[in-house]
Design goal:
Layout lengths: L10 H4 L7 E11 L1 H12 L2 H5 L3 E4 L9 E6 L2 E13 L2 E8 L5 E11 L4 E12 L2 H6 L1 H21 L6
Antiparallel strand pairs: 1-7, 2-3, 3-4, 4-5, 5-6, 6-7
């Protein structure tokens, strides 16, 4: 039995994103070719990308898998989550996690590496969320800006990680 704090589990994978939440869709080019795709996908699935942003990650497993719990720490903020889906397809690698009690928001966020037919590799973040408590409601637009900034930091961390991979 899950303790996730929202009923729309898996919607960052299956869509459409549910009404009643703020939506985030972020996508950036990070390189090209099979080596870039493989290295970026591995960095996402092993939480290396998250750690490279400066976030403190505590997790019960080395790789993302459904049911794996993790806590992301950014400054004084602690955000408990659970991986709700993982994909490892020919042209798509990533996972989505949902919020657990104690998270400042309610919803789901997905981190995916995608390869298009031309071999270009993109990093995408898809999320739906809403405040879970007074602190997040009070921060309003700043919380939205912080979520967008974190998506950009993840893309930058992946690009740095890929510096040694032929792009």
């Amino acid at each position: 039995m899950t303790r996730l704090t929202y009923p729309e589990i898996g919607r960052t994978r299956t869509g459409p994103l549910p009404d009643g939440y703020r939506h985030l869709r972020y996508r950036r080019w990070i390189g090209a070719g099979p080596a870039v795709f493989a290295a970026a996908g591995e960095a996402v699935l092993t939480f290396r990308m998250h750690r490279a942003t400066g976030a403190r990650i505590r997790t019960e497993a080395e790789r993302a898998a459904p049911g794996v719990r993790l806590t992301i720490g950014l400054g004084p903020l602690r955000a408990p989550c659970e991986v709700v889906w993982v994909t490892r397809e020919e042209d798509r690698i990533g996972f989505g996690y949902g919020t657990l009690p104690g998270h400042p928001a309610t919803g789901e966020e997905a981190f995916v590496v995608e390869r298009d037919p031309q071999g270009r590799v993109f990093f995408a973040v898809t999320a739906f969320s809403r405040p879970a408590g007074a602190l997040m409601r009070l921060t309003g637009p700043f919380a939205v800006l912080a979520q967008h900034a974190y998506a950009r930091r993840c893309a930058q961390a992946l690009r740095r990680h890929l510096g040694g991979v032929a792009r």
